[in-house]
Amino acid sequence: MSMSVSTFSQAQLRQRLNLLLVLGLSLALSVALITGRVLLTRQLTFVFLLWNLFLALVPFGLSTMLGLAAGRLRARVLLPVGAAWLLFFPNAPYILTDLFHLHPRPGVPYWYDLALILSCAWNGLMLAYASLLDMQQLVTRRLGTLTGWGFAALALLLSSFGIYLGRYLRFNSWDVLSNPVSLFYDILTRLLHPRAYPGTWGVTLLYGLFLLLGYATVRLLGRVEEKGEE
């Protein structure tokens, strides 16, 4: 029994290291594209994407920490770290909306800027899915598969609402502490008067469905690969 646990832990660690390697290479490509653009144009047009990528790394780091923690330590930190994870989680898929910044600019080919933003958006999406998988597995172990998928769907729906708050109302995760009154007022207003804000629920539901279908696809592809290796 102890041998199987040890082997399983080693397999998980190896899988995590492989994931970190691939994500690291993908993030390095985004950083290289942004740096190359700055050197070429002497302008800081897309440097803000570096900050967005950092924010996307936060929930992945938190979920990784929970995944590595064990026993009593995980039980003690699960709620506070889980709350922090949920607060920062929308920052990862939020980068998809940075495609709004794409339009022809002098000095750089349009295809270069497209590749740059798509690279950052892809990294944000993959960090979101990898982080959500960690959290879903934690919930599944405690409460079962159905509850785990319910948690994943709810997290993606809430993240889509967070995307709306960030992109259109210009709130960010820090506003929970620095500007809570305005944040909660705007949220409560939209909850009490949903018909007055069709854009809010259009973005929330459409992006939530898109993210959920994408996540389910990634999960299914992973299972197909696992079965193929058996």
UniProtKB/TrEMBL annotation:
<keyword id="KW-0472">Membrane</keyword>
<dbReference type="Pfam" id="PF07099">
    <property type="entry name" value="DUF1361"/>
</dbReference>
<feature type="transmembrane region" description="Helical">
    <location>
        <begin position="143"/>
        <end position="165"/>
    </location>
</feature>
<feature type="transmembrane region" description="Helical">
    <location>
        <begin position="77"/>
        <end position="96"/>
    </location>
</feature>
<protein>
    <submittedName>
        <fullName>Uncharacterized membrane protein</fullName>
    </submittedName>
</protein>
<feature type="transmembrane region" description="Helical">
    <location>
        <begin position="20"/>
        <end position="40"/>
    </location>
</feature>
<feature type="transmembrane region" description="Helical">
    <location>
        <begin position="201"/>
        <end position="222"/>
    </location>
</feature>
<keyword id="KW-0812">Transmembrane</keyword>
<keyword id="KW-1133">Transmembrane helix</keyword>
<feature type="transmembrane region" description="Helical">
    <location>
        <begin position="108"/>
        <end position="131"/>
    </location>
</feature>
<dbReference type="InterPro" id="IPR009793">
    <property type="entry name" value="DUF1361"/>
</dbReference>
<feature type="transmembrane region" description="Helical">
    <location>
        <begin position="46"/>
        <end position="70"/>
    </location>
</feature>
